[in-house]
Amino acid sequence: GKMCHFLSQNSQPAIRGDDITVKSYKVESRITSRFCHTTVKSSVVNSGPNAQSIGFNVQIPKQAFITNFTMNVNGITFVGSVKEKTVARNLYAQARARGKAAGLVRYRTDMETFKTEVHVPPGSKIEFELHYQEMMQRKLGFYEHSLYLQPGRLVPQFQVDVYIYEPSGIASVETLNTLGEHFSGMAKLTSSKDKAHVVFKPSLQQQRKCENCTTSAIDGIFTVKYDVLRDSNAGELHVSDGHFVHFFAPANLSPLPKNIVFVIDVSGSMWGVKMKQTVEAMQTILDDLTMDDYFSIVDFNHNVRCWSEELVPGSTIQVAEAKKYIQNIKPNGGTNINEALMRAVQMLVKASNQGMIDPRSVSMIMLVSDGDPTVGEIKLSAIQKNVKKVMREEFSLFSLGIGFDVDYDFLERIAMENRGVAQRIYTSHDASDQIRRFYSQVSSPLLRKITVQFPEDSVSDVTQNHFDKYFSGSELVVAGKVLPSESTTLNSFTTASADRLDLSLQTEADYLELDAALAQQQHAFTGFARQMWAYITVNQLLVERSLAPTAGHKRKITQRILTLAVEHQFVTPLTALLVESEEGKERLLADSPNDPKQGCCAGDCGPSQVPDWGPSPEAPDWGPYACACKISVCLCLCPLILRPLCPLGVVVNGQLVGSKRVGVEEKEKEKVNTYFGTISVFYQPDGIRVSVSTDRIDLTHGRNNHSFTWGATADITQDRVKVSIVKDSKVMVTVDDKITVMVLLHRVWKKHPTHVDFLGLYIPNNNQYSSQAHGLIGQFGQEPEVRVFNLHQGADPLKKKATMQVKGNKLVVTRGWQKDYRRDKKRGSDVFCWFIHNSGKGFIDGHYTNYIVPRLDSFLALPP
Fold this sequence. Notes:
Elements: E1 3-8, E2 15-16, E3 20-32, E4 35-46, E5 52-59, E6 65-73, E7 76-84, H1 85-97, E8 102-106, E9 113-120, E10 125-135, E11 138-139, E12 142-149, E13 157-165, E14 170-176, E15 188-191, E16 195-200, H2 204-207, E17 220-228, E18 236-240, E19 243-248, E20 258-265, H3 273-287, E21 294-300, E22 304-306, E23 312-313, H4 316-327, H5 337-353, E24 362-369, H6 380-390, E25 395-402, H7 408-416, E26 422-425, H8 431-442, E27 445-453, E28 459-460, E29 466-471, E30 476-482, E31 489-498, E32 501-510, H9 513-519, H10 528-546, H11 551-568, E33 575-581, E34 587-591, E35 630-637, E36 648-658, H12 664-669, E37 674-683, E38 688-693, E39 697-701, E40 704-708, E41 714-718, E42 721-726, E43 730-735, E44 739-746, E45 758-762, H13 775-778, E46 786-792, E47 801-806, E48 809-820, E49 829-836
Parallel strand pairs: 3-13, 8-34, 20-21, 20-24, 24-25, 25-26
Antiparallel strand pairs: 1-9, 2-5, 3-4, 4-10, 5-9, 6-7, 6-10, 7-33, 11-12, 12-17, 13-16, 14-17, 15-16, 18-19, 19-30, 21-22, 21-23, 27-29, 27-31, 28-30, 31-32, 33-34, 35-36, 36-37, 37-38, 38-39, 39-40, 41-42, 42-43, 43-44, 44-45, 46-47, 47-48, 48-49
């Protein structure tokens, strides 16, 4: 049958389809020495009378690597293998060329859902099986293993097993009641000194939302939380399968004093909930400061302000003053990240030079921002370079990116390059808790300058073994290969600086002891050390690659990642998972699309008042058109993780204006050109409309209407709609952090006899919609098959003619070009294209008059 596979960010039932029987849904995780291998299996039957598409969706942690996916359809087994992208694509292309069943698994690193769909006849039996691996991260003193359980229906055989084996011993283990009171106490836990087993196996009746309900109450995250026993501060050294892993998580040390500058974005886009929750979080964070700590606050929009030009001690009086200052902030204006970070670094440098701060203290900057720079230095690479240049080796930068408008990759790069980490904060009711939790992870530094070393010629291929800081409740992990040796033990030596003292610690491990113990365990993951070393190495190389200074250096790192990912079967942004039948006749591909729009959630939106949707191509300026009326360009928004209801409609409509009319005689001689005079974005769920015209921008919500001029840069947020105005240039309208529409303003000489001011419409490629779209632009989201032939000279030698075969029609087309004004607003750049005559007849669906709508907030009628 026909198959298609892709990843999406949507939270959906694990099994999708009508008239299907889900026989079983089983999840098993094996955690050994903090490394986890998870398997998700499901058995499904198409019990309906018709052929249909059956979906299998698994939400996985962002830090996990998929290692395999297999599928059995009516006895035909498809087995996965990770290959270099080019190799996998070529094999996939060969299968398609032979006309064999071929589909696509889309893989993108910023998404959490693995999503599969298979089209099968009635009576078909399908078995899905997905494998992924991850390293447990210790935060605030615990490891948390989370499994996303959303079967979407009652399942006769539903079971979750989590097996933990920690050779050093388990200090504590518990299941968190994250699935709700309905399942309170239903997970069974058994544990011994070094093993634990959690089983969650609700019966069919227990799964029901109520006694006679046919819907499942299982919908959420199942979490197991644990920590291990630690005999000493020297750490644990595990040797297995020719590899070693050293865990270092000392406790009972006095925290180092810290010097911290909070850099807070107070631009217009932070107005409302984002600022309220940031202020809320800062109240608690400031209370955490002690007299040994020094701090200040830098807040910035288009300007940069300092609460105090110098660092001050965290006394009760100073903290109270700082809290008042933050409470009185009123967000507005642009975003000058570069100047704010420069000021923060200068503050730390000045304090250091003047001997104000303890040389053993930890100096850090904590940046909180929700958007890209719009004022001052706006080039991200230049900001990154500027910050790195002034940051001292002993300073760290931590970045918090609020929402989805922010360029999170940039915040992550700038943090990692300056000995810090980044965290995305989701704009939900608990955003202040997320900020506080992140701060808690870095608020108690215990050690500086940590180095883990091994005797010469005893190990090779060691992962990062020098760390700038160690924070209470976290863990440092070093892994590598063990070289052949006459000795039967491996030693590690750790040095670090603590408060008022220097540490030198030593520990050892027997080469054979752990392998012998693993052989006795029924549910241990025996290959953990080898996979953990590869997991850490690949992740560190991906960071290095993102910071590589030259193309040559980047190529070398890429090759190392490819080699490791293929050898250890990790699906990374640089590898692909080829899934093929045992005979190799039918192939499917797990790939990371170059074009972000391909990662969209195809087929997610149900019936609505708008036609089928799809990713929209970039829109040129639609200049002259057939009639002076309202033209509809429609988009459909997919549901986000926290929004299960669908459809969610967005419509983009344009109203045309004609050129100036010189006189009746002139009008009779020439056709009047028409242009976009108004472009409207209407978000139906919130009832918000943004209307952009050549003289103003209106934001309407119910009876409330707010008008803004083109004469000032501004950021406005209303519920889930954000409007960014760049003075006399453009407007960006972002809906629910998922869809962006850009409108460019074109001014002409006011005394020109015919020309009028007009607008240009651009739809970015990285928007994400459902697989269905319509309207003049939206209908080409999934491009039709087009063949152009019979190229020949036309009346104009610069404009060749040809025949285009599309949608079963043969059309005469003319070669021409349109202007793209995004980079060069005055002259524009030429975009070559084919012009379709007769108002697009035979190319667009239906007649052009079908796209005329009565109002700027009207949706298209459903096609017959």
